[in-house]
Amino acid sequence: MTIPEGFVREIRLPQIHDPRGDLTFVEGGNHIPFDIRRVYYLYNVPVDAERGGHAHKELEQVVFALSGSFRMKIDDGHTQSEYWLRDPRKGLYINRLVWREMDSFSQGAVCMVLASQPYDESDYYRSYDAFLAATRSNRA
Questions:
Q1: Which residues form a coiled coil (predicted)?
Q2: Beta strand segments in 1-140, E
């Protein structure tokens, strides 16, 4: 079973083909359903490492594999899904109140995240139990 589209969905970016190579671009509010307020990326992640393990109260994100691949495990408090990111033109939109975990990073993988807000530690659910309680009260 997959998580409803409003919470998680694939984002496809445009690609311009050229004999010198391909070019992909992203515009906040156009290709991404929010204005981009922060960009960060993960790299040199050991192949056996796990990242994520949290949800956000308000933050929205789109996650891309710019190089290599990794798995996103997604949980909206009711349904769990898995997505493999490996194409730099395809990102995964993750709405607020969605638990995410990342693992199975390939050698040399680079993960880029576009975020709707600057970093704010108070926006995180780092406890899965607290996340589940929030999903029950917010989506009842």
A1: none
A2: 8-12, 15-16, 23-24, 38-42, 51-56, 61-67, 70-75, 80-85, 90-94, 99-103, 110-115, 124-125
